[in-house]
Design a protein that fits this description.
It is a peripheral membrane protein. This protein is an alpha+beta fold. Helices cover 36% and strands 24% of the residues. The strands form 5 sheets. A 7-stranded antiparallel beta sheet has the order 6-5-4-3-9-8-7, sandwiched between helices. The chain has a 6-stranded antiparallel β-barrel with strand order 15-16-19-20-18-17. A two-stranded parallel ribbon has the order 1-2.
Length: 790
């Protein structure tokens, strides 16, 4: 006699009332239905009922519907402020406004992607007790809670006004119901939304549990009455009495069935609600367990490192005596230049933590971090060979968007960022890293054909990007006057020197001379812009390469690098643009094209194609490959013109010999993913060396501390260095203004120490080139000209 009806998880019980229901039984049904939160009733009144009963039942059921059914826009759930419906919620710049199903109940505004998600997944919950409601443009309003804003839109102005009114009423009710704590304020303001959310959930669960208790009592009561009726029916002897008793039994069975359905539905509501909150609380509990485990591991690691340093100090009494003997009273033994540092345990990199204080304490940390790179136990090797690893990168989580959201449109070099987004190398060292595949230039120097030489030069220009595919870390901005040298004469036959010649805009000059027949120099200025979703890095300036034997002089520039997914997702890097390599001696030319990545393209990702032409524009070689793997060249033996070009232009078809491999990327070192994805050369760039200039990047304290894993200390040291540089710049500007006011000659600007600005006779370009003197000063160990920038 019941119609099967489907209901939503969050809707109240949906029951069917049989047609033979009497007025007395209907009153009992009303009590049972109201005990479980109200019900929608579907009735079937058959012709067997009397007119009087049909009128009474209709009135009672009308009252039932009026009392239990909310308005069409209101949510059929507990609470006087219940409301639900579709709204448009702002998600991000990629997707804009998206339609979401919102449910307002018990002082909480929850939203879901669909109504079906209400059974298992809540996309977010806003606590109205602490929310700020603000009306925007047409159909638009903003909810602000805990520093986060929710931009919402309704279908119409009327619907928007109804939502705002319901939210304001719910906020007022939630504010009145919030308990006021008498504590002295152990919990901060950030804990209030979470506490209100938990209290609202507990209140809802308690209400559902009370409904279950009421239904349980009713089931017990009506079940006992049904049993009594069945017993009386068995004891009947007269047939006339059986009709009345059978009718009573049928009524009591119907009432029991209605109450049982209400109980089942109330149980399902309670279980669903408990499971939804249980999943959220389990995730929160799992997160706290992981944080606790991470903290325990960190403390254990610190304890090991502390013990290793104490043991090393106790086992070296000679160091104590050396620091104490001959030291006048009142002087610190730390000023003794002969202090030695000893190896730590091999299973953990050693470092020491000192309380926050003056600048000398950071210097102490820098000295210890610098000495750690001399320890065999840390995997670093000095003099016996280049090091093959550095300390693993700490797993510190930091939100890049939280720092850069206020820097849209600014130049990247002017955005102050912590070292958490850096890699422990400076931009000067990154420039030097272009020499990773210097053997390509050694091979090119031995070529007799300038066109074959051009192919190798093109492969070298592409190889400089091979290490950037996983390198999303930002190199340190060099200080003005900072230098970096790389002497690889014994291994690879070249010497390299870089100097930072300008701070704003950041510019560096680089010079490399090789005993194997070539010289390379460049002046690079970095122009970078933050576009919101990505960062564009545009190196300005040309790279010059000259071969000693042939006199061939090649000039080219770099392409644009783009870092994607700044807002959301995993960071990834792409290279795009064109490179034109020109031989100024005979006008040979190579055109390389770096194809930008496209989701809809069928081409190989990171694709590079090119063609090598002579001075008359005749193509001789086709170049192809990817900038993160390899480059190949194929000699053209025949060319023809065919149809199919764009805009009616003819398309040139080349017939070539089988391609030859020009360059292949070296595999990354073992455990590179935990060492900033450094290549074999990059691992050695910051390795300590004797006799370098005091302005060398290896001696930069914040960079050294970051490499050692001391990121907090590195951030503090970085702020000190940057503030000192700003003070020096203001001092020079003040001196220049004072001289101008007094009519005196302006003081000479800070000029580079090792580079001069000259005009190239072949290309006509004016740039900074190496003027000599650095390697001679290193041989004499005369660094008196160098400024004290660190």
């Amino acid at each position: 006699q019941h119609m099967p009806l489907k209901r939503s998880v969050h809707a109240p019980p949906l029951l069917a009332v049989p047609a033979n229901l009497t007025p007395r039984l209907l009153d009992h049904a009303l009590n049972a239905l109201h005990a479980c939160g109200g019900a929608r009733v579907v009735r079937q009144v058959s012709g067997a009922c009397s007119a009087a009963f049909r009128q009474t039942a209709a009135l009672n059921m009308t009252e039932l519907v009026v009392r239990t059914l909310p308005s069409p826009s209101a949510a059929q759930g507990p609470g006087p402020d219940a409301y639900k419906g579709w709204l448009f919620k702002w998600t991000n710049y990629l997707k804009g406004y998206q339609r979401r199903w919102f449910v307002l109940s018990n002082g909480l505004l929850s939203y879901y992607r669909t109504q079906a998600e209400m059974a298992h997944t809540c996309r977010g919950t806003i606590t109205l007790a602490t929310v700020h409601i603000e009306m925007g443009d047409t159909c638009h309003f903003v909810l602000t809670s805990g520093g986060r804003s929710y931009h919402l839109k309704a279908y119409s102005e009327g619907e928007c006004q109804r939502w705002v009114s319901a939210l304001q009423q719910a906020k007022a009710n939630a504010t009145q119901m919030m308990p006021h704590s008498d504590d002295s304020g152990d919990e901060g303001p950030l804990a209030q939304p979470d506490r209100a959310l938990i209290q609202g959930a507990l209140k809802t669960l308690a209400s559902k549990l009370e409904d279950l208790n009421t239904c349980n009592e009713l089931i017990g009561k009506h079940g006992a009455a049904l049993q009594r009726s069945l017993s009386e029916l068995e004891d009947l002897r007269a047939a006339s009495d059986g009709v009345d008793k059978l009718k009573t039994v049928n009524e009591r069975a119907t009432l029991f069935r209605i109450t049982s359905n209400a109980m089942i539905n109330a149980c399902q509501d309670f279980v669903d609600l408990a499971e939804a909150h249980s999943r959220r609380w389990q995730r929160a509990l799992q997160y706290e367990r992981e944080q606790r485990h991470h903290l325990e591991e960190t403390i254990e690691q610190l304890a090991k490192q502390h013990n290793s340093l104490e043991r090393a100090w106790r086992e070296s009494p000679s160091t104590h005596n050396k620091g104490a003997e001959g030291t006048p009273e009142g002087e610190s033994s730390e000023e003794n230049e002969d202090i030695e540092f000893f190896d730590a345990m091999e299973d953990s990199p050693a470092f020491i933590t000192v309380p926050a204080g003056d600048h000398s304490q950071h210097r102490c940390l820098f000295t210890i971090a610098f000495s750690l790179c001399l320890q065999e136990g840390s995997g670093c090797y000095l003099r016996r060979g280049r090091r093959r690893r550095i300390p693993d990168k700490p797993n510190y989580s930091l939100n890049l968007w939280s720092i850069m959201k206020n820097c849209i449109g600014k130049e990247l070099s002017k955005i102050p960022m912590p070292v958490n987004f850096n890699e422990p190398l400076s931009m000067l060292q990154r420039l030097t890293e272009d020499l990773e595949y210097s053997e390509l230039l050694d091979r090119a120097a031995r070529c007799d054909s300038s066109l074959e030489q051009m192919c190798l030069v093109a492969a070298f220009s592409v190889s400089s990007y091979s290490t950037t595919v996983h390198r999303t870390g930002k190199p340190f901005n060099p200080l003005l006057g900072e230098t970096y040298e790389l002497d690889r004469v014994e291994e690879y036959g070249y010497r390299s020197i870089c100097e930072q010649i300008s701070h704003h805009p950041p510019a560096a000059a680089h010079h490399v001379i090789s005993q194997r027949g070539w010289t390379l120099w460049q002046e690079i200025t970095i122009d970078s812009k933050f576009r919101g979703k990505y960062i564009s890095i545009m190196p300005l300036g040309n790279i010059h390469l000259k071969f000693h034997a042939s006199g061939n002089h090649y000039v080219w520039s770099k392409v644009t690098s783009t870092v994607h997914n700044i807002i959301v997702g995993k960071l990834w890097i792409d290279q795009s643009g064109d490179i034109i390599i020109m031989n100024h001696r005979n006008k040979d030319k190579c055109h390389l094209k770096f194809s930008p990545y496209s989701y809809f393209s069928r081409d190989v990702p990171r694709k590079v194609t090119g063609v090598v032409m002579d001075s008359e524009g005749c193509a001789h070689y086709i170049l192809s490959g990817t900038w993160d793997d390899k480059m190949e060249s194929a000699k053209i033996i025949e060319s023809s013109h065919g149809s199919g070009g764009s805009e009616g232009k003819q398309k040139t078809v080349y017939q070539t010999l089988p391609p030859k491999l020009l360059w292949k990327k070296y595999p990354l070192p073992e455990n590179a993913e935990n060492m900033h994805y450094f290549s074999s050369l990059a691992l050695t760039l910051n390795e300590p060396e004797d006799g370098v200039a005091p302005t060398d990047s290896r001696l930069r304290p914040d960079q050294r501390l970051m490499e050692a894993g001391l990121w907090d200390e590195a951030n503090a040291e970085k702020q000190i260095l940057e503030e000192r540089q700003r003070l020096e710049r203001r001092k020079r500007e003040a001196q220049a203004n004072l001289a101008l006011e007094e009519g005196k000659t302006e003081p000479d600007p800070l000029i580079p120490l090792w580079f001069d600005k000259r005009t190239d006779t072949e290309s006509g370009e004016s740039s900074y080139v190496y003027k000599g003197g650095y390697w001679e000063a290193k041989d004499r160990q005369d660094w008196s000209q160098c400024p004290a920038i660190f």
